[in-house]
Every structure is written in C-alpha cells, then in structure tokens.
Amino acid sequence: MPTAEDLxxxxxxxxxxxxxxxxxxxxxxxxxxxxxxxxxQEGQRADRCWLIxxxxxxxDAQVSGRxxxxxxxxxxxxxxxxxxxxxxxRWHFGALTTEPVDAVEFDSATxxxxxxxxxRFGRDLILALFEALLARLQATRARxxxxxxxxxxxxxxxxxxxxxxxxxx
Length: 169
Prior knowledge:
8 strands; 35% helix
C-alpha cells in the first residue's frame, strides 16, 4: 500500500493536505505492468485510475478508416484515467505500456465512496483530477495539431490575403 508521503510527490495531488493524502493512500494499491501491456481498451468500462510511479504509457485513439494514433505519452508522475468520473463511465482513449510500469491503482467505487463520505475531500480530489484533465486536453490538442497540420495553413499570407509577410514552414 502506498503512503501519504509517496503520493505527496505527485504534482497533481499537491493541493491535497496530509490527511487527504493519507485517506487516498489507504485506497490505493501498488501495481506493475510489463511492456506492451494494454492497460485500457477504448470503449470499455472505466472503473479505475492510476498514478504512474515509473515507466511510460502511450494513450491511443481509434480513428475510423485509419490505424490507431498515439495522442499522448504519459510518464512518471502522470495520472492515467479520468473517465470513471463522468457517465457513461467508458474509456475515451486506449492505454498501452511502452516499457514496464509501476503505478498506484485506485478503484473508482472506493474513490466515489470516499468523496461521498467527505464532500470537502471529494471537491479537492475532483479539482486535482480536473487540473490533470485540462493539462491532458491541451497536450492532446497540440499533438493533434502536429498530426494533422497542413503546412499551407501555417502561412501567414494564407490567413491574411494581400499581406506580404514571410511564410512559416
């Protein structure tokens, strides 16, 4: 079982006080995954989340008519899994380890129970998770822009007809 001190090293949890970290630590369990292990299958029931202690996990998305695409890579200190927070409680991305991973795993039913028993703790935990969610959305946005950019769209002259400026590659 992880300790409150173990969890205090995760940036996403820095807003939680030591009592809350202790409560969260008691709900977690240590897990390990080998390389090339599918932790999450997109569309399946979302009932857990993880704090990555070491290793690397690629988040992927299914794209109709194309191969799956990697939208982000997670490393030590990152949170994996927030789909358990909102209906329909299904994973929105897949997750595949690209190297061995050690993590702290949390069962969503246990976390939900803790949040219901102590609404202040629940609010603080949800805010911490949403900070991680916002960071994830921004990173995914940047990754998708890289994947699908059309160099012509980056030309200033294409955006401002009649303007003579240097073109951006």
